[in-house]
Structures are given as C-alpha cells and as structure tokens.
C-alpha cells in the first residue's frame, strides 16, 4: 500500500578527489553541476529532473555512500512516516532545512541493513535543464557525455534483509518487485519499488553495510553502447558490460568513478504495479539473473564495494 513516498530524491557519495569526481560525473556521465556549499559539497542533476539536484558529492578519506534520500508528497506525509519509523524501532534523526542546499527538513533513519536513509518533502525545483516547460524541445543541444536522464536507484549490500523489507513495505509503502531465493527459501536479494519502475532501491545479503552502485537512466540500448564507447575513450575503469540483466531485464554497463564508487547506466527494464506478484530467481541461477548473456558473475561485481 502506497504511503506517500514518491521517488528516489538524492544520494550523497564520498569521493577522494572532488575535482576528479566532478569531471567524471559532468564530462563523462553528462550530469550538470548546480551548486556548491560552504562545506565544499557539490550538487549535480540529470537533465530531465525537475528538482535542483539528485547527486551530492562530498570530499572524504574513503569512498562510499553517506545516505540515500526519498522524496515524499507533502510535509504532512513526512510527519506520518516519521511516526511510523519510530514505532518500527528505527533510530531517527531530524535534520533542519538548509543543511542541504535548497532542501527542506529531512528525517534520517538507519535501516536494519545499517545504511542511512532519509525522507524529505521539499526541495527547490529548477525544472528540466536546457528545455522550457512550455512547448519544450526534445532535448538540450548542449548535453555532453552519456547524457544521463535521471538518478534511478541504488544497490546496497548488507545484513537483515527480511527486517529491511518489512520496514520498506509496512512503513514506507514499497513493493517487492523481484527477489532471489536460496533452495531453503531464504531471500538473499530483493528489489523494491515505490513506483512503476523495476526498482527504486535494491539490497543483497552481506555481513556488513556497503555501497554497491548508484544507477542513472539512459534512453535506449544505443545510448548504453555509446556509454561503453565513452568509457573506452576516457580510459575509465570498467566493471562489466554492455550486457543485459536477467533481473529487471535492463540493458546495462557498470564502471567506476575515480574514487572507486561503482556507477551504472542502463536502459529499458521491466515495470511493476502493486497487483503484480514478485518475480523470483533461484540462487543457483544468480549468474544469469545478474548478467543474462555471460551467465556467470565476475569477481569484481561481488567483492568491490565501498
């Protein structure tokens, strides 16, 4: 049952060299730098997004994810969800408006996996970049790099997947779109959606909380192939692809930013409505589920985490 969470709103990543990171996310991926704050954080967005930013970069001594945020439909919903988080037993922190540039108050909580998430309802809207909201052209001519269209989801590794699913389902209103089960019926991977997308956040069983990747959407398979060309042209470290997923059936390529954070760009993929049953993959078919063409998992995909 939907609870008023709309979509992924932003993710804050730690990077080792802020200038190298900004170059990677703007010149290679095609995101647009929108702002910087007194803390030195850099705010970026993909061109179709109406909110001011969806990616925040913070200079740090080790890479990884600080938090992932979801946008709610109203401040009243935010209050209701906060109460639900407390009743569930989550550790909750209230962050005042303005802590992130042009963003309203946020409610941060720790999921059973150990990852930090947050909810917010207000953020300055700047509209789609490079096109008007009235009689808009098809796309901005100034776009460069991979021309990513939106921040789509994160994949996270961590423990306590069953409890995390209960939290996202019962408190936040997410559906289970796809899952991977062991022969004993234990869920070791779960793809959760609060929209009609194949997933808005996903989790894979792991002993400690880690960041696997942040994903950005492209228009089509040709754009994924073009992204692969750009990765080679810039000597960017690649993980795997271009290929197709079995899970979600998206067309994908994985690579790394200069700090070692994994990125994905993808196109296509399945859709999900609340009356759909979860798609289930058997754990012994995990290779085909992740990399449909190769049907085997590469070591980097499983072990390189930040």
From TrEMBL:
<feature type="domain" description="VOC">
    <location>
        <begin position="150"/>
        <end position="268"/>
    </location>
</feature>
<dbReference type="InterPro" id="IPR017624">
    <property type="entry name" value="Catechol_2-3_dOase"/>
</dbReference>
<feature type="domain" description="VOC">
    <location>
        <begin position="7"/>
        <end position="122"/>
    </location>
</feature>
<dbReference type="GO" id="GO:0008198">
    <property type="term" value="F:ferrous iron binding"/>
</dbReference>
<comment type="similarity">
    <text>Belongs to the extradiol ring-cleavage dioxygenase family.</text>
</comment>
<keyword id="KW-0677">Repeat</keyword>
<dbReference type="InterPro" id="IPR004360">
    <property type="entry name" value="Glyas_Fos-R_dOase_dom"/>
</dbReference>
<keyword id="KW-0408">Iron</keyword>
<comment type="subunit">
    <text>Homotetramer.</text>
</comment>
<dbReference type="GO" id="GO:0018577">
    <property type="term" value="F:catechol 2,3-dioxygenase activity"/>
</dbReference>
<dbReference type="Pfam" id="PF22247">
    <property type="entry name" value="Diox-like_N"/>
</dbReference>
<protein>
    <recommendedName>
        <fullName>Metapyrocatechase</fullName>
        <ecNumber>1.13.11.2</ecNumber>
    </recommendedName>
</protein>
<keyword id="KW-0058">Aromatic hydrocarbons catabolism</keyword>
<dbReference type="InterPro" id="IPR037523">
    <property type="entry name" value="VOC_core"/>
</dbReference>
<keyword id="KW-0479">Metal-binding</keyword>
<dbReference type="Pfam" id="PF00903">
    <property type="entry name" value="Glyoxalase"/>
</dbReference>
<keyword id="KW-0223">Dioxygenase</keyword>
<dbReference type="InterPro" id="IPR051332">
    <property type="entry name" value="Fosfomycin_Res_Enzymes"/>
</dbReference>
<dbReference type="InterPro" id="IPR054560">
    <property type="entry name" value="XylE-like_N"/>
</dbReference>
<dbReference type="InterPro" id="IPR029068">
    <property type="entry name" value="Glyas_Bleomycin-R_OHBP_Dase"/>
</dbReference>
<dbReference type="InterPro" id="IPR000486">
    <property type="entry name" value="Xdiol_ring_cleave_dOase_1/2"/>
</dbReference>
<keyword id="KW-0560">Oxidoreductase</keyword>
